Amino acid sequence: MGRFDGKVAFITGAARGQGRSHAVRLASEGAHVVISDICGPVDHNLIKPASADDFETTIQAIAEAAPASKVLSRQVDVRDAAALEQLGADAVAQFGHIDIVVANAGILNWAEFNDYTTEMFTAVIDTNLTGVFNTVKATVPHMIEAKRGGSVILISSAAGIKGQPFTLGYTAAKHGVIGICRGLANELGEHNIRVNSIHPSGVATAMGDANGLMEIITKHGATMGPLFMNTLPTLMADPSDISNAVAFLASDESSMITGLQMKVDMGTTNR
Ligand SMILES: NC(=O)c1ccc[n+]([C@@H]2O[C@H](COP(=O)([O-])OP(=O)(O)OC[C@H]3O[C@@H](n4cnc5c(N)ncnc54)[C@H](O)[C@@H]3O)[C@@H](O)[C@H]2O)c1
Questions:
Q1: Ligand 1 centroid from CA 50, angstroms
Q2: Which pLDDT value is given to residue 36?
Q3: In what order do the strands lie in the sheet with 8-12?
Q4: Is the distance from the beta carbon of residue 249 to the nearest atom of ligand 1 less than 6 Å?
Q5: How would you classify residue 103: left for phi > 0, otherwise alpha for psi between -120 and 50, otherwise beta?
Q6: pLDDT along the chain (271 residues), means of 10
């Protein structure tokens, strides 16, 4: 018996990194999974794009870890509300319901303020904030209709809680995700659908490998360095550390928890 037997989980940004880890974890505990990713570049994203091969690796990893888990996979851009809504509708047509949503897809860019352009700002808002809204729009109406309750998990960041410099679009978007989380938690409580956000700090993924950002931080090290320091003696979390939080919030063990900002941040936002 797995904690998610009979459940269906909808996960965006699942081609690699944390999204892949969440998909494999939820599947290995019994869920069927609906996974999506753009599998290609996004303008003004300074992180190396994920590929269709990466996405295929996720599908293989799920098959190995959870052979009984059924997978609906599709290349979808979270900025494309219509395509995401189609995926939500197709998920319900195939599996009957959606129980768990993990809005995980994200991009990152950085520059000192004078070099940080409106286009960079807008690009991050479009994927990291509007993309989260599009994800819940594509899934939550089906969850309400099914009357099965459920768990919506929004992946924010330590940058959603503290004033992370040099990444203004990202910092604004990740703060905005808290607004979606808290407002939606209040709207959906009567349907027993819980909405919580997770706030990782550095995670060892392609995004965690943001060397250009580290160069700017180092340049301003005396004043900015402490902002990025952790309390625990670990520099980077593993994606599985974040999946532990996702699995908890997806499970009935957190059935009394909604509207929470769960920090999986090695203490950085506590400084
Ligand atoms: N890695 C970190 O240090 C860190 C820290 C805090 C929060 N996060 C957040 O965790 C989440 C996962 O990031 P990750 O660390 O796995 O990085 P990652 O770059 O490995 O994965 C992000 C995935 O999102 C996909 N994606 C990007 N834009 C998309 C779009 N428009 N539509 C669909 N898919 C899109 C990418 O293709 C990629 O597969 C993101 O929301 C990120 O902001 C990451």
A1: 9
A2: 99
A3: 71-75, 32-37, 8-12, 100-103, 150-155, 193-200, 261-264
A4: no
A5: beta
A6: 96 98 98 98 98 98 98 98 98 98 98 98 98 99 98 99 97 99 98 99 95 91 83 96 98 98 97 87
Residue identifier of the C-alpha nearest atom 7 of ligand 1 = 157
Question: Rounded to 5 degrees, what angle do the CA atoms 19, 217, 215 make?
Answer: 85
Distance from the alpha carbon of residue 28 to the mean position of ligand 1, in angstroms: 21
* Domains of the chain with CATH codes: 8-255 (3.40.50.720)
Instruction: Compute the distance from residue 269 Cα to the ligand 1 centre, in Å.
Output: 20
φ, ψ at 43 (rounded to 5°): -55, 140
Question: Given ligand 1 and candidates 205, 236, 261, which is best to mutate, with the most ligand atoms within 8 Å of its CB?
Answer: 205
Instruction: Mark whether 116 is an active-site residue.
Output: no
Helix%, strand%, coil% for the chain, nearest 5: 50, 15, 35
113 Cβ contact partners less than 8 Å away, ≥ 6 residues apart: 166, 168
